[in-house]
Every structure is written in structure tokens, then in C-alpha cells.
Amino acid sequence: MKLKQLSVFLENRAGRLAEVTRVLGDAGVNIRALSLADTSDFGILRLLVDKNETAVKALTDDGLTVRATDVLAIEVADRPGGLATVLALLHGRGLNVEYMYAFLERVKDNAIIVFRFDDMEKALDILQEANIRVFGPDDVAGM
Questions:
Q1: H or E stretch including 11?
Q2: Domain containing 42 — which CATH number?
């Protein structure tokens, strides 16, 4: 149920993000979710894409540094307090959220949020026990 997220390390300069999206587009890779964090010197672009291997090859061939990490994409009620309910469950079981960002799709009336936890296996167990939907690679590729 874990997803592979690609982290692309970028120089903080004009046009770099446009170049990454062009490279992915030229390779036929569709971005499903993304987050960009930056400092004065560099940025980290976190991506969920429909074709991980193709994306990694295209980006590394373009001279970029790419790393794959595990994340969970979780269905969260899209209403006031929906995210708070999920976070309270996880916090109550001792889990720390390292970072999170929203997915570009919705499922019915629910949002999809991407999480990186300090203990991914424990997070997956807790979410499954609570019957919270966790999306797998096939779900993402089909969106």
C-alpha cells in the first residue's frame, strides 16, 4: 500500500521547475501530486507520478538528482475536522508526521492527502485497523 515518492533536488534558480515538468512531459509521465519546498540555495520537489521508472530515468538523464522514498496516500473526509480526526488517531498512537501535502484528485466527497511518517509500517497498521483507505500504486496510476 505504500507509494514511491520521487524527491528531485533542484538548484534554486529561475526556470528549473519548468525544466523538470518539461522533461517529465516529454517522457510521457503524468504528475499526480507534488510539493515544493525551498531554501535560498536549493529546493526539493516531491512528486507522485504514474510512471516512476520512466520519470527517474528521464530526470537522471537530464542531470538531476532523484531519490525514491515511501509515502502513504490516505483518504480523508473533505469536511471541517476531517484531517484533524486522522491526525488525532495517529498522534494518539505515537506517530509523527514528517511532512504532508494534498493530492491532485478527489474520491467522491473525500480528499487524498500524502503523508510521510517517522514509522511507515506502524502508520499503515494503524490506518488499516481504523478502516481508513490507503491508496496503492495501481490506484495512483489509474487516476
A1: strand 3-11
A2: 3.30.2130.10
